[in-house]
Design brief:
2 domains; PH-domain like; about 20% helix; about 375 residues; single chain; alpha+beta; globular
């Protein structure tokens, strides 16, 4: 693989500046998360996908045409390579707490979200990208000879931060989360807690992208045991959300809002109902298993499930995982790829549990 790119770089006078592995999402296939090798050169960003992507979503395979990719190279186990030229790059949206970033090109075919799930990897890529873009800095457009009030008021200097938006000297926008976005998330959490009266005192202690580990037994072959989730820790509760990482904020060319909300509550539990935390290599390496007491009338999902009094099958997936567990217990098996985020979650959760329960949180090591 790298021999091919070495040849390309020599011919095109390119230089490889950064390489990382990351899960990626594409705007045209928002429900398919796939692992990719991301290469940043002095001219383009390359997304190399493994051969499992060919079968991931066959009804949308028309997205991967010859214009967007170089597919089915028989010499290597690669199915597709998406190339985004830096000259076509328009904006970069950085997610909350640097857990992911979205790259936007000139069309819907060139919108990609990299789910690094790690602030360090996100920061490292941003630094390298800005450095490369500085080499391609575009000359500023000529100023109008007759300046009026409106042109003066609307002009923006490049290379300066303005309202959480950095306009790079290359004219690429780097957009960071603002206080309003964090406030909207806090409001949503308070709404699910049914406690809007204490919104001002609500503190989001941790936001991290993780996976919920589902039982492999009896599941379909094409069903992954890892389901992407957003985990949010507040001073009193733990939440699991299904989040749309690719469609928000809306691209400029979008003609209608996305079909899904940005955040959809999957499950929520009170910290004081947490009985213990299991740490080990079962059922997934370095996964954390949170064991909650299934306290009646304290299930936060009651505020969300419209068919709460209907069949058990209609309840959200995160609400019932009691197979093989003790009666009256709910288990979350959560895998957090970032070791730093995992340790921080345990530390913050243990501190809040001790404040609420008056003793140390039981942490049990498993084989």
């Amino acid at each position: 693989m790298f021999e091919i790119f070495e040849t390309v770089f020599l011919v095109e006078n390119e230089e490889l500046r950064h390489l990382m592995w990351s899960s990626v999402l594409f705007y045209k296939t928002p429900s398919v998360e796939v692992m990719a090798c991301v290469l940043l050169s002095t001219k383009a960003i390359y997304f190399l996908l493994d051969d499992t992507f060919n079968h991931a979503d066959e009804h949308q395979s028309d997205f991967w045409n010859q214009e967007n990719s170089d597919c089915e190279n028989n010499s290597f186990h690669l199915s597709c390579c998406l190339v985004l030229k830096l000259n076509d790059l328009q904006s970069v949206n950085v997610g909350l707490f640097d857990q992911y970033f979205r790259i936007t090109g000139q069309s819907a075919d060139h919108i990609v979200t990299c789910l690094t799930r790690d602030s360090y990897n996100t920061h490292a890529f941003m630094q390298q990208l800005m450095a490369v873009l500085s080499l391609l800095a575009r000359t500023p457009s000529p100023e109008p000879i007759d300046k009026d009030f409106y042109s003066e008021f609307g002009s923006k200097n490049t290379g300066k931060m303005e309202n959480y938006e950095l306009i790079h000297s290359s004219r690429v926008k780097f957009i960071y989360p603002n206080e309003e976005e964090i406030g909207d998330l806090a409001f949503l959490v308070a709404e699910k807690m049914d406690d809007l009266t204490h919104l001002q005192s609500l503190h989001i202690l941790l936001y991290v992208l993780a996976f919920q580990v589902n039982p492999v037994e009896g599941s379909a072959q094409n069903t992954s045991p890892l389901q992407p989730k957003t985990l949010i820790l507040t001073s009193s509760d733990l939440f699991l959300f299904d989040e749309d990482y690719i469609c928000y904020p809306l691209p400029e060319f979008a003609k209608e809002p996305p079909q899904r909300d940005k955040y959809r509550l999957a499950d929520g539990r009170r910290i004081r109902d947490l009985d213990r935390v299991l740490m080990g290599y079962q059922t997934y390496p370095q996964a954390l298993t949170f064991v909650f007491d299934d306290v009646q009338n304290q299930n936060l999902m009651q505020n969300l499930a419209l068919n709460h009094f209907g069949d058990a099958d209609s309840a959200p997936k995160g609400n019932a995982k009691q197979e093989g567990n003790r009666s009256g217990e709910i288990q979350w098996c959560i895998f957090i790829p970032s070791a730093e985020s995992r340790e921080r979650l345990i530390s913050l959760l243990a501190r809040q549990w001790e404040i609420l329960c008056g003793r140390e949180l039981p942490l049990e090591l498993t084989g």
